[in-house]
Amino acid sequence: MTEAIADTGPILHLYEIGQLECLGAFDNLQLPELVAEELRAYGLDPSRLEIATLIISIVRVPEVEWMQIVNDTKKPTIHPADAQVYVLARSNQFRSPVLTDDLDLRRFLENVGATVVGSVGVLVRAYKVGRLTHSELESAVDALFTTSTLHISRAFKAYVHRLLADLS
User: Fold this and answer.
1) Could you give the number of structural domains in the chain?
2) What is the CATH number of the domain that holds 61?
């Protein structure tokens, strides 16, 4: 069973490009409560996401645990929902990949050895498990860069295009 912990970004960005079904590359997706709230604010009710074979669990994270991270001045600014993602990942010793497009959270998690996957990584995984053809992967990545609210650098776009060429 492939389990992941998700932040708001990848779910929102995949929704924006009509590729939510790519989350089905995982069997179980855990969302902290504040991530679920953020998704609802964007008009996405996580309990109603109809993605074949995907089980979505909304997990309560004790405030005392995530507030320590938010208030830690030695760490980069971590927002409450991101702090809940971190606490959830830490609770299973960072064994599950964490889906996030937030650069500060990515760095924070990578510093403790967690596997971090962004929206592009979810699309690539969906391709590798046969949920997308190479052509569909290229179209989805192009849509991610042009249609979604994901903010990425030119250098990252160039890197992704090289990666896609290597996958064919």
Assistant:
1) 1
2) 3.40.50.1010
Place of tokens 């179209």: 139
Say how far apart CA 60 and CA 107 lie, in whole Å.
24
Tell me: the pLDDT tens digits for 12-62? 999 999 999 999 999 999 999 999 999 999 999 987 787 867 899 999 999
Provide the residue range defining the domain that includes 100.
1-168
**For the chain, give me the number of helices (H) and strands (E)?**
8, 5
Is the CA virtual torsion 25, 148, 18, 33 positive or negative? positive
- What's this model's pTM, rounded to 2 decimal places? 0.93
Tens-digit pLDDT profile for residues 52-98:
678 999 999 999 999 998 888 676 788 999 999 999 999 999 999 99
